[in-house]
Request: fold
Amino acid sequence: MSPFTPKRLPLDETIGERLRQARHYRNLKIEEVAKRLNIRAEYLAALEAEDLDKLPAGLYGKNFLKEYASFLGLKTADIANYWQQRGDRENSDPFSQKIVKKHKFIIFPRIVRNILVLAAVLICFLYLISYFKQVVLPPALSISQPSENLVTASDMITISGQTEAEAEVKINGQIVLNNYNGYFTETVNLKKGLNNITITAQKKYSQTKTVNRQILVE
Reply:
């Protein structure tokens, strides 16, 4: 009597077929295996169908294959040899081929991507704050003459100063023209006694900047 020799699976049998046969032999459904391994059922089905495009890129797909094969009692070394024996391409690791073929760019880690998104949002937020301040806050206003609490014998005085170019300047409620640099000059009549001079500057939607001068005419 000749000794019994176990038959080895042919090399042309795909790894997907081995996985499917091993699962059927144990009378398991893909959904049951998915719950036990905590792997999505569609990923397990893709492994059995060898539809690698439906698997996650990188080491995830390879790890899913190893976990599934180990759960079904298949040797992970045999699975690695299977891919090695395919030999149809220069790189025998189909998961690595998938990354190179599909992406061809550097994949940033999720934390780096989140930092970049957060930085972009922060920059936009700071820009909006700066723009809001420019629109709402009162313009700068400086008075070069007259000085504060001036005493004079003249019945006229020249008021000059500078504000922002787009601001509207008023002296005692009367609009004063200013040049493109924001400089303005205006002559004001004075009366005997104490004169209150109010200079204001305001942009279209901004608050009003006010400077007061008191001039005493002897």
Notes: The helical segments are 15-25, 30-37, 41-49, 59-71, 76-86, 94-102, 110-136. Residues 1-11, 86-92, 99-105 have pLDDT under 50 and may be disordered. The first helix runs from residue 15 to 25. Residues 7 and 13 are 13 Å apart (CA to CA).
